[in-house]
Amino acid sequence: MVRNGKANYAFEKYLSERFNARSSSLWVDGLAVSTIVEVSERLGIVMVFGQYAFSTKMSDADRLQAFRAGFAAVYDGPARILAAFDEIHRTSSSRLPGFHSDFGAFSRWFALVDWTKERYQPIVELLCKFAFENYPFEVGEQFLGRACEEQKFMRAASAAKKYKIDHLRTRLLARDLGFGTDTAYAQILIDVKKYGKKFEEFSQCINQKTMADELGINETYINKFLAGGFIRPRFAIEGLAPIFHPDDIGSFLSKIRKQAAYVTRPPKGSLALSEVSIRVKQNLVDILELCLAGKAKSLCFANRTPSLSDFFVNRDEILDLLQSEPPNGIYKHKVRPFLRINTSTLKFVVDEGLLNSERVKHHRSRKPTALIRFEDVSDFLAQYTTLGMMSFQAG
What we know:
The chain is α+β, with helices and mostly antiparallel strands. It has helices at 9-19, 33-49, 60-76, 78-91, 99-112, 121-134, 156-162, 167-176, 192-204, 208-215, 222-228, 246-258, 273-279, 284-292, 315-322, 332-339, 343-351, 374-383, 387-394, and strands spanning 142-143, 146-147, 153-155, 189-191, 261-262, 270-272, 300-301, 311-314, 329-331, 358-361, 368-373.
């Protein structure tokens, strides 16, 4: 009952109309009057004064104010009641959000009454609908005699347990996803539909070393792959080393495989990609770019489910593809027979500055070598003649 001597006009008007047999299709008319009073009192207390309010510590005026607010919601029907539930849920200041802590007096009252009675069922239906939509109930978990059919939210600790992620990593992931930054770990509620897939993906990811092992390459290559954009971390979270999803690794290998032919054994002259990179003195990333562009026609693999170490390519073909224009000069090792001098004499000529030598990469072999520019050779010959050249000219 409403224990207040003052008239509650809206409620009294409703009772007058209801008991005077006026025709109505209002939802509230399906409730027993005693249920309307009970729900209006307890729901109104939480709506007006929050989850920490107790009716025994309230004045008559406060209880009347709470009743009026609660009755207005009940009178308007399910949509308004659910809106009241939502307002209570959103404005709760509980340190550990949950139905019982959020709904205070209303929850305590509901725990004391026999909610299995028929007269409470319309309210029970609304409570269950709201609770399952907004609180971390697991599938099959019971609440007021109803079983949850689909989990909508989970606590961070539950997510850590479900996806087998330690709590520190769960906390960092939650922060990275945009919630939990200013929220205590225990208060974080994760929207399963929106974020569940992210947590599942996170739990499947591997670190850089494991990825290198799966690719069959040295871990030192991974940073080059990242710089080349071949593989990107699925998660790059502050406080954690980047981690990679197996599907992204598989997609990368699939792109290479599309440009390669399957063979039972690598053809003669073929080398593994990483070995070719060493032999031709070229970054593996550059060789992979040639392969992905379909330029390496000799690319093949000898394993039906290849890792990177199972791809082979012809060394000479890669050298052909990487070959640049011949330089404007003569490689040092070819200058000696041209000038008809021995190695010691050539070294002397270069060391004395009579011929300028510079280090370059060979236009085909890619190996570092010494080059002497044509103009420097011309300048030398304009001033000097070697004994070897004089002997040759003399016949």
